[in-house]
Design goal:
4-stranded antiparallel beta sheet; 205 residues; 8 helices; alpha/beta; 4-stranded parallel beta sheet
């Protein structure tokens, strides 16, 4: 078992519980899609798993280790990458500079190792390789999303957590992003996602 969520209860205030006794299991090299209506707490679940929220009760196990309550930087060290629903690129920086920010957690590996990790990501995303010197703000919405996903892959995560990766994107771009996610699964990267494109999410999972 790669990830196991055990009966967690989560709330933003003392008397408001968004999640109540939620459990989830994710096996290695699996794609798991969390589906539900707006306001059901899907994003809250992902934020809790990635350390942005601490559950009131319950546990989160990762590779058998209790990681409940660890902060987001610790989750990155555990090779958990999170791509939020909100856009998080730096529009004034180039694609390459944005990608370099994803290497922060592996900066001690040295410049050559960092560059090698970035080039490996570029191989997965040829479009970004072609645009590496372009300001990120000039990319399309789909390009922005691909860059965010690509940036999260630089430190070689074992688990990729995605919150609404295709929201607001054109159908052809949605299919392209899901094709990339399937490719990542084939490369033994486990994926946990929330998405409103239910048909594509279910087909992928």
């Amino acid at each position: 078992m790669l990830l196991e969520v055990q009966d967690i209860t989560v709330g933003y205030f003392h008397d408001i519980e968004i999640l109540q006794q939620v459990s989830l299991q994710v096996h290695p090299s699996q794609i798991v899609a969390v589906i539900g209506p707006n306001g059901a707490g899907k994003s809250t679940l992902l934020k809790t798993i990635c350390g942005f929220l601490t559950p009131k009760q319950g546990r989160i196990l990762y590779n058998g280790e209790d990681i409940t309550g660890l902060d987001p930087s610790a989750m990155i060290r555990h090779r958990i990458a999170y791509v939020p629903q909100e856009r998080s690129i730096f529009p004034e920086l180039t694609v390459d500079e944005n990608l370099l920010l994803g290497a922060w957690s592996i900066r001690h590996s040295g410049k050559q190792a960092v560059r090698a990790a970035m080039e490996e990501v570029y191989l997965r995303f040829p479009y970004l390789a072609e645009q590496r010197h372009t300001r990120a703000g000039l990319l399309s919405g789909g390009g922005h999303r691909m860059l965010e996903i690509a940036r999260s892959l630089v430190p070689k995560p074992q688990l990729l957590v995605l919150d609404e990766p295709t929201v607001g994107l054109a159908p052809l771009v949605v299919k392209e992003i899901y094709a990339k996610l399937y490719q990542l699964k084939e490369e033994a990267i486990t994926i946990l996602l929330v998405d409103q494109n239910v048909r594509e999410a279910v087909a992928l999972a």
